[in-house]
């Protein structure tokens, strides 16, 4: 089965590469939120963050730092947003991370959850659950 993410990460499809090494390829998003919006994809096929090897994880984070530095130097944004959507929220069947230069009033939003589950009242309980896994 063909994977668009694999094709992009391994330059089998045309991409505007900013950086690559043996583990990852970083290239400009074809539908950028702002100029310089970059995607980081591992060259090996993985769907989720939890499937990355230790070396791939380091390569992704090192690339995110390097791309952020390049964006700050070249484009002078007000900030950088880095995000990754997994599971049903991923728009590729391949792990990818976004590095997005941000500007005040650019319209990018982080909205409050529509689910009213009182999670803020269970912080101790949730922390204990997560510590014991």
Can you give a write-up of this model?
This protein is α+β, with helices and mostly antiparallel strands. The chain has a single domain (4-131), classed as HIT family, subunit A, CATH 3.30.428. Helix content is 28%, strand content 19%. The protein is built from 3 helices and 5 strands; from the N terminus they run αβββαββα. The chain has helices at 4-9, 54-75, 123-131, and strands at residues 17-20, 24-28, 38-42, 79-83, 97-102. Strands 1-2-3-5-4 form a 5-stranded antiparallel β-sheet. It is globular and about 50 Å long. The termini are far apart. The mean pLDDT is 94.
Quick structural summary:
The chain has helices at about 5-10, 55-75, 125-130, and strands spanning about 15-20, 25-30, 40, 80-85, 95-100.
> Approximately how much helix is present in the residues?
25-40%
Write down the overall geometry: globular
* Radius of gyration, whole Å: 17 Å
Task: Report mean pLDDT, rounded to a whole number.
Answer: 94
State the fourth-level CATH superfamily. HIT-like
Summed up, the helix count is: 3
- Broad structural category: alpha+beta
Question: Would you list the SSEs in sequence order as H and E?
Answer: HEEEHEEH
Alpha carbon gap, first and last residue: 34 Å
The CATH topology is HIT family, subunit A
Strand content: 15-25%
Q: Outline the low-pLDDT stretches.
A: none
What is the C-level CATH assignment?
Alpha Beta
Count of extended strands = 5
Strand line-up of the largest beta sheet: 1-2-3-5-4
Number of domains: 1
Assigned CATH architecture: 2-Layer Sandwich
Largest pleated sheet: 5 strands, antiparallel
């Amino acid at each position: 089965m063909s994977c668009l993410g694999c094709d992009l990460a391994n330059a089998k499809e045309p991409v505007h590469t900013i950086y690559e090494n043996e583990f990852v390829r970083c290239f400009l998003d074809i539908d950028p939120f702002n100029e310089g919006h970059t995607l980081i994809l591992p060259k090996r096929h993985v769907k989720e963050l939890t499937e990355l090897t230790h070396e791939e994880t380091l390569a992704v984070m090192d690339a995110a730092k390097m791309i952020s530095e390049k964006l700050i130097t070249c484009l002078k944004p007000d900030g950088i947003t880095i995000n990754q959507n997994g599971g049903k929220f991923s728009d590729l069947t391949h792990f990818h991370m976004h590095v997005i230069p941000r500007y005040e009033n650019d319209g990018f939003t982080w909205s409050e959850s529509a689910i009213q589950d009182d999670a803020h009242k269970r912080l101790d309980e949730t922390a204990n659950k997560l510590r014991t896994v």
